[in-house]
Write the structure tokens for this entry.
Amino acid sequence: MSAELTDKALATSSGASAGTLGRLDGQVTGEEAFAQARLISACTHLPVAADLEKGFADAPLPWPRPFAWQALPGLVGASIEDATGDRSAR
């Protein structure tokens, strides 16, 4: 499938992803988030951006290693939060 310029796109939602698994936001693993992004990408011709929480790690990791193995057709972007979620680290 070739990429086309469009004004339409889809984005995953970490909260919605968690809800479909009966969990709260922040309780989805990286593998689960990428599985859902793969499923969404496979079901549409639109570009998809993934909500990747805080990168599924508590400390900075060497980039792009953590996500290089997860490259998938249809995923054109991602959002990574700039916080650890650790309230004591604020």
Summary: The chain has a mean pLDDT of 79. The chain has one domain: 10-82. The two ends are 44 Å apart (CA to CA).
